[in-house]
Specification:
This protein is α/β, with parallel strands linked by helices. It is built from ten helices and 14 strands. The strands form three sheets. Strands 1-4-3-2-5-6 form a six-stranded parallel β-sheet, with helices on both faces. A six-stranded antiparallel β-sheet has the order 9-14-11-12-13-10. Strands 7-8 form a two-stranded antiparallel sheet.
C-alpha cells in the first residue's frame, strides 16, 4: 500500500483511484462496508482502490485540548487499511486552508483537481466543507457536474444498534471489549513500542511489556485478557496474556498506560512494536493493601485469562 501525504503535488501515477472517503477511526464494520463498495467500483473501472482520510482528525484540529478520543493512531489505521487491500491511502492534511473550503471548493479542488478520483464512496452521514455544510446528496450533485461517480453507502446496523465510532468508544468506556469487537469486526487493539517502566512487574514475578495509551480513547481501567502480536524481531509471533490498563494505584498516582504480561514468554521486548488486542474485561483497577495481596490477585487474573483465551 502506498501512503500519500502530499496531495498538492501528486504524482500522476497516484491519480484516478476509486476511493472511500471518511475519517475511518477504528475501521469498523461500517467503514469496511464503504471500502468494499469502493473496491467493487475500482474493479469495475479497472483503477486502484483508494481511501481518502484526514490527518490530524478534524476533531483534533478544532479542539486540540479536548480529551483523547481516537480509537487508533494514524499508523494503526494504515496497517488495518493495508490488511483490507487498500492500494492508495490519501492522508490529506487537515489544516486551516482545508477547513475554510466550501463544499463546492472541496469537491472541485481536492477530489477532482488534486486527486483526480474517478469514483468516491461515502457513508450516508458524511459531511464536508466549511462548517460541515455539505451533505452526501450535495456530493452526488457535484460529482455529476465535475465528472466523478458517487455512491452513498447505507449505515450498518447490528442487533445492538447502529455501528459507529461513538458506540465503540462507549463500549470500551464501559468495559465491554467484546461488544466493541462485534462492531469493529476485529478485536480493539492498542499498538505501540515497548517502553521502559518502573520494572515493578519483574520484581513481582510478572515482567510486563509497557506501551503508552497517550492520544487514544482510554478503555475502562482494569485488567483484561488479551492476545498480543509481537510485530517483528526475534520474538515475532502471537501470545496470550493479561493486561492492566490504568494508573497503578497501589504504587501511587502514575500516568495511564497499558502493561501486558505475556504468558510463557522469555525474552527482551524493549523497543519492539507490539499490538495488544482486548478480548475480555476481567475486573476493575484497584488499590491493594500489600504486595502479597496484589501478587495473589495477579495469579488469579492470569488463571482467568488463560481459561478465557483457551476458547478464543
Amino acid at each position: 500500500m502506498r501512503i500519500i501525504r502530499d496531495t498538492l503535488f501528486l504524482d500522476p501515477y497516484d491519480r484516478g483511484a476509486a476511493a472511500a472517503i471518511g475519517n475511518f477511526d477504528g475501521v469498523h464494520l461500517g467503514h469496511q462496508a464503504v471500502i468494499d463498495i469502493a473496491r467493487a467500483e475500482a474493479r469495475r473501472l479497472d483503477v486502484p482502490l483508494g481511501v481518502m482520510t484526514f490527518e490530524p482528525h478534524p476533531r483534533e484540529f478544532f479542539a486540540p485540548d479536548a480529551p483523547a478520543f481516537r480509537l487508533m493512531s494514524a499508523e494503526t489505521r494504515a496497517h488495518r487499511m493495508a490488511k483490507l487491500g487498500v492500494e492508495k491511502l490519501y492522508e490529506v492534511p487537515f489544516n486551516t486552508g482545508l477547513a475554510a473550503l466550501t463544499p463546492r471548493e472541496f469537491a472541485e479542488t481536492v477530489i477532482h483537481q488534486r486527486l483526480g478520483l474517478t469514483h468516491i464512496v461515502v457513508g450516508a452521514d458524511f459531511r464536508f466543507g466549511k462548517g460541515r455544510a455539505g451533505s452526501a446528496e450535495d456530493l452526488v450533485a457535484f460529482g455529476a457536474e465535475l465528472g466523478f461517480g458517487v455512491t452513498v453507502a447505507e449505515l450498518v446496523e447490528l442487533a445492538q444498534g447502529e455501528v459507529s465510532s461513538t458506540a465503540i468508544r462507549n463500549a470500551l468506556t464501559e468495559g465491554r471489549p467484546r461488544d466493541a469487537a462485534a462492531m469493529l469486526g476485529h478485536w480493539h487493539r492498542i499498538d505501540g513500542e515497548v517502553i521502559r517502566g518502573d520494572q515493578r512487574g519483574r520484581d513481582l514475578g510478572f515482567p510486563t511489556a509497557n506501551i503508552s495509551i497517550e492520544g487514544l480513547h482510554p478503555p475502562r481501567h482494569g485488567v483484561y485478557a488479551v492476545k498480543v502480536d509481537v510485530l517483528g524481531g526475534p520474538h515475532e509471533g502471537t501470545y496470550d496474556g493479561a493486561s492492566s490498563i490504568g494508573v497503578r494505584p497501589t504504587f501511587g498516582f502514575n500516568h495511564p498506560n497499558c502493561e501486558t504480561y505475556l504468558f510463557d514468554f522469555k525474552g527482551d521486548l524493549y523497543g519492539a512494536d507490539i499490538s495488544v488486542a482486548l478480548v475480555d474485561y476481567l475486573r476493575p483497577e484497584e488499590k491493594f493493601d500489600s504486595l502479597d495481596a496484589l501478587i495473589t490477585q495477579m495469579h488469579a487474573d492470569c488463571d482467568q485469562a488463560r481459561r478465557i483465551l483457551a476458547d478464543v
